[in-house]
Design a protein that fits this description.
Rossmann fold; 2 domains; 11 helices
């Protein structure tokens, strides 16, 4: 796919000041234009599918649906859309999950004012953009590939990961059912499946697990 003369961009971040800052930096470039904004992953999915955008810049940690979950959904449903992740954390787990979800790059918020333009352009060229220490992280993972905790994470389905995140954020079964548009009975079945698969017994253990796996912030 040829690179458009002006890349149309969606920014998703739950902090308005972050969206405003990124928009200012990107809109100052003649080949980049922010045309849509979202404050959570669910809204990002909806707008990215409905609007004519070429690149989605997604904050990794957002309420309800994370940027990583949004990236995974968009990668499946709109494969031509380029994805770039944004985060406060140089987190190994966030980095790996972002790449698995289909993102081409990972930008740290602390460096975003210097890096976001280059990252956007590289992503549109089909190249990767990673913060400097991410390279050594990827090399380390190559050496240690196949660790048990990675396989453990893979046993949960995408829907179970959504339910797990909301459980860890203290949503009730009724609230989860409303948020995901499923029945309370289905929520309870997912909850029990998650507990059984992970060998856990309560929400406290699930919350600790969700923090460790990068689904929510401590």
């Amino acid at each position: 796919m040829p690179i458009p003369l002006v890349t149309r961009i969606l920014i998703a971040d739950d902090h308005p000041i972050v969206r405003s800052g990124l928009k200012k930096v990107l809109d100052a470039q003649p080949d980049l234009e922010v045309v849509a904004e979202a404050e959570d992953g669910a809204e990002a999915i909806k707008k990215a599918l409905a609007e004519d955008v070429h690149l989605a810049i997604l904050d990794v940690s957002m309420p309800k649906t994370t940027g990583i979950q949004a990236a995974e959904e968009l990668h499946k449903r709109k494969p031509g859309l380029k994805l770039l992740m944004l985060s406060m954390y140089a987190s190994e787990q966030f980095l790996f999950e972002s790449l698995r979800a289909g993102a081409s790059g990972y930008v740290l918020k602390s460096d975003a004012d210097q890096d976001i333009v280059e990252a956007a352009r590289r992503t549109m060229r089909g190249q990767s953009f990673l913060y400097p220490s991410a390279i050594s992280t990827l090399v380390k993972d190559f050496v240690e590939r196949g660790r048990p905790e990675d396989r453990e994470f893979d046993i949960l389905t995408p829907r179970e990961l959504q339910v797990l995140k909301l459980i860890a954020e203290a949503y009730t079964s009724k609230e989860i059912a409303r948020e995901l548009v499923i029945s309370i009975k289905t929520v309870e079945r997912h909850r029990q499946n998650i507990l059984d698969k992970l060998g856990m017994s309560d929400r406290v253990e699930l919350t600790r697990y969700a923090i460790r796996r990068g689904l929510i912030q401590p």
